[in-house]
Structures are given as C-alpha cells and as structure tokens.
Design a protein that fits this description.
Helix content: 10-25%
Structural class: alpha+beta
Largest sheet: 5 strands, antiparallel
Number of helices: 3
CATH class: Alpha Beta
Strand order of the largest sheet: 1-3-4-5-2
Number of strands: 5
CATH superfamily: Hotdog Thioesterase
Number of domains: 1
Length: about 130
C-alpha cells in the first residue's frame, strides 16, 4: 500500500448544538447536565476526520490511536460549540492534529489527536 502524502496545515471545523443527549448525564460520564467530555472527544475526532476528507487514497481511512485533551469549561444545553482540527505533523502513516473547541465566550477544550492511515480491508481483517 502506498500512502498518499497529506500537507501539514490542512484543517476542518465542525459545529455542535449541545442537546440533552450530549451531556455528561446522558453519556454516564458525570452527574451534571453539561456537555460531556466523551462528546467533546468525539467532536474533535469528527473534525480530524473531516480534515482528511479527500486527502487519502482509495481504500484508505484513518483510525484514532491517541487522544490528549484538556476539557476546560462547562457548556450548557442549547449552546453551540465548534471543534477545529489542524494537521500539525505527518510521520509515515501517523497524522497528528492540534484540536480545539470553542464557544462564543472562548476556549472550551484543547489538545492533540493522533490518527493512523490504514487500508480499510486489512484493518477489518484484523478486527476482533
């Protein structure tokens, strides 16, 4: 398999209107009705995947392998947050993204996500 090079700096932004289903209560990751950390992580992953859209070869995808995230501010239901992922570094099959989540008041979360480019067929053959 030949991996298609991806230029550093590619980016994407995704938005989320926070609903009851996105809360720590609903996700069973806490006892308060604010945006849950698992949903913040998923939103950052969504932005990283979107940044790679159209950048990979036929039959390739990327899979998450590492997440480092600081969740800094509680966000109420009804608020809108935006996650941005910017490709910082490509090393072989690894893609490292700087990610951040913001609302109208400022920074909500920030960190890094590492994804690895894989052959979909080979990856699924190894899945258990």
């Amino acid at each position: 398999m030949v991996f298609v090079p991806v230029k550093n700096g590619v980016s994407a932004e995704v938005a989320l209107l926070v609903t009851d289903a996105d809360t720590a209560l609903a996700l069973r990751s806490g006892e308060v009705a604010v945006l849950g950390t698992p949903r913040v992580v998923a939103l950052c992953e969504e932005a990283a995947v979107a940044a790679l859209a159209g950048q990979l070869g036929s039959g390739e995808t990327s899979v998450g392998t590492r997440i480092e995230l600081a969740h800094l501010a509680p966000i109420l239901v009804g608020s809108t947050v935006r996650a941005t992922a910017v490709l910082e570094k490509s090393e072989g099959k690894r893609r490292v993204f700087n990610v951040s989540v913001n609302d109208e008041y400022g920074l909500v979360a920030a960190g890094k996500i590492t994804r690895v480019v894989v052959s979909i067929d080979q990856f699924m053959e190894r899945a258990r």
